[in-house]
Write a structure and sequence with these properties.
The protein has about 190 residues and is mainly alpha-helical. The protein contains seven helices and no strands. α4 packs across α7. The radius of gyration is 21 Å and the shape is elongated. The chain starts with 5 loop residues before the first helix and ends in an 8-residue tail after the last helix. The relative contact order is 0.16. One of its GO terms (cellular component) is plasma membrane.
Length: about 190
């Protein structure tokens, strides 16, 4: 296995410092909340590197990341639900949707909408758009929240399991040769 570039070695050391500073839960929760309702990007942007830096905290960080993204997605669901009155009114008539078409579509989503939510949490589909659409179209909140929680927990706990059972050791093995062969000088204080 080729050694890791020096910047990755320094990056992992910095993540370990952050993880030890006591801010990892707040950072992971804050990013999960912001990513869940505002920013595009990976929900695991901070959770995964911080879990790799301190694998013994991987499961706790997974739960914190899940809480942040679920809270953000629920906010978007309620935003979409508020937009429903506008969608059912003049916009729907302008687009040619009748009240009966909305009722039929809601019934279909009540039956299958949770699967779309679950798929969006496990795939590159945008959970933000799915959350807004679920609220706007009228997916029942319990089905939405259950599918969202199940999908997010499955994803983050699976990643935490990978970190705890080999992922962190693989990163350490990859980074360690860079410390011993490429950089023989002692690390600089930051």
């Amino acid at each position: 296995m080729s050694p890791a570039p020096r910047f990755l070695t320094r990056f992992l050391a910095r993540l370990q410092q952050w993880a030890d500073a006591g801010w990892s839960n707040a950072v992971v929760l804050g990013w999960g909340l912001l990513q869940g309702c505002i920013f595009p990007g990976l929900a695991d942007l901070f959770f995964l590197p911080l879990a790799l830096a301190r694998p013994e905290r991987a499961y706790r960080l997974a739960l914190v990341a899940t809480a942040g993204t679920v809270i953000g997605s629920v906010l978007l669901y309620w935003l979409g639900a508020e937009a429903l009155s506008v969608l059912e009114g003049p916009i729907a008539r302008w687009l040619g949707f009748s009240p009966d078409a909305f009722t039929e579509y809601r019934a279909r989503l009540a039956k299958f909408g949770a699967w779309a939510i679950l798929a969006s949490t496990m795939s590159p589909l945008s959970t933000k758009l799915t959350s807004i659409a679920s609220g706007a179209i009228g997916v029942p909140f319990v089905a939405f929240a259950g599918a969202l929680l199940a999908g997010r927990l499955t994803r983050t706990l699976a990643l935490a399991w990978l970190v705890r059972h080999g992922g962190a050791q693989a990163v350490a093995r990859w980074v360690r040769p860079a410390n011993t062969t490429v950089d023989s000088a002692p690390p600089r204080a930051s």
